[in-house]
Design brief:
The protein has 323 residues and is of the alpha+beta class. It is built from 16 helices and 7 strands.
């Protein structure tokens, strides 16, 4: 009963223009005191921000939470996405090789991330980021604290890069460009890879490639190491699978439980055992540190598995095979 009443309160708040709401006024004042923004100027900007119910609807049912692996893979492991990925790699070969040389991230991984995120830059989001982050900051209580920080980062980003706050588009969650960086990720990891003076992840694939590679490098990608391997359990693993995305079990411990795999590594190597609902029943996988690094981009084992398997499909195509 209280929950329903609370939803009604927030629904009513959403009908009030943002610049007139007390929490928005407080946010504008905080941005003025903390970062030197013009308080009244920010309220003029928030007067143009629009509440979007479809943003609330979308974030309440992300695919990673409602789909099985059998369903999820059908979205991302398609012949078209593989074919277009090969074309992307050939078109941007020089940038991908340069990114691997500088950051140590395989071209197939960088390409797969961009392929999963935006179909190689073709579907980057049609929401104004201001609308998305205002809606989620002030009308989505479950994660309002997080998105208010992203709204702060977005305003700083726009000021630093001399971009129009009203003209930047992205996803329903405020993610932007080829690699779908949220504002805090942009400020921390976006790079001007072609050195033209602007880290343009929206329209410049070279900057996007360098930025994704930098993100992975900064999150601890281990060059040449395994990502994930299939496992063949001979005993019940219910107590240890899907416990943590972060590798916490050792390969030696799993061997003692009768888990078999093709991996060649020290028994002390830490891994994360997973069970996914695949097309032919349960699949068991062992995720290594590099798999965990992929989940830092999107905290989902389904997402990381899609990126990995798409990258393997691109690798088997022979595109940039020597890299």
């Amino acid at each position: 009963m209280f929950f329903c009443f609370s939803l009604k309160i927030f629904a009513d708040d959403a009908k009030i223009a943002y610049q007139h709401r007390d929490e928005v006024k407080s946010f504008a004042k905080e941005m003025s005191e903390k970062h030197g923004f013009d308080e009244k100027g920010l309220l003029v900007i928030f007067a143009q921000a629009k509440y979007k119910q479809n943003i609330i609807d979308a974030i309440s049912r992300p695919a990673e939470r409602v789909l099985t692996w059998a369903e999820y893979q059908d979205i991302f492991l398609t012949e078209k996405r593989i074919r277009d990925g090969r074309s992307f790699m050939l078109e941007h070969k020089d940038a991908l090789i340069a990114a691997e040389k500088k950051y140590g991230i395989p071209p197939v991984i960088v390409t797969a991330v961009i392929g999963v995120e935006t179909m190689y830059g073709r579907i980057t989001g049609s929401f104004r980021v201001l609308d998305a982050l205002s809606t989620l900051s002030f009308d989505y209580p479950p994660r309002s604290k997080f998105f208010r920080k992203e709204l702060e980062q977005f305003l700083l980003l726009a000021r630093e890069q001399k971009q129009s706050i009203l003209d930047i588009n992205g996803s329903y969650a405020g993610a932007m460009g080829y690699g779908q960086f949220i504002p805090s990720s942009y400020r921390a990891y976006a790079v001007d890879f072609d050195e033209d003076g602007f880290s343009d992840i929206w329209h410049n694939p070279t900057d996007a490639i360098g930025s994704v590679a930098n993100y992975f490098a900064e999150h601890g990608w281990r060059k040449g190491d395994e990502v994930v391997v299939k496992a063949d359990p001979t005993s019940d693993l219910d107590d240890i699978v899907n416990v943590s995305l972060k590798p916490t079990q050792t390969l030696g411990d799993l061997k003692k439980l009768g888990v078999k795999s093709s991996v060649i590594a020290e028994d002390s190597e830490r891994i994360s055992p997973m069970r996914l609902a695949g097309k032919s029943g349960d699949e068991y996988w062992l995720g290594f540190t590099n798999f965990y690094v992929i989940t830092r981009y999107n905290h989902s084992k389904l997402y990381a598995m899609a990126v990995y398997q798409l990258s393997e499909a691109l690798r088997s195509a022979g595109t940039l095979a020597s890299h």
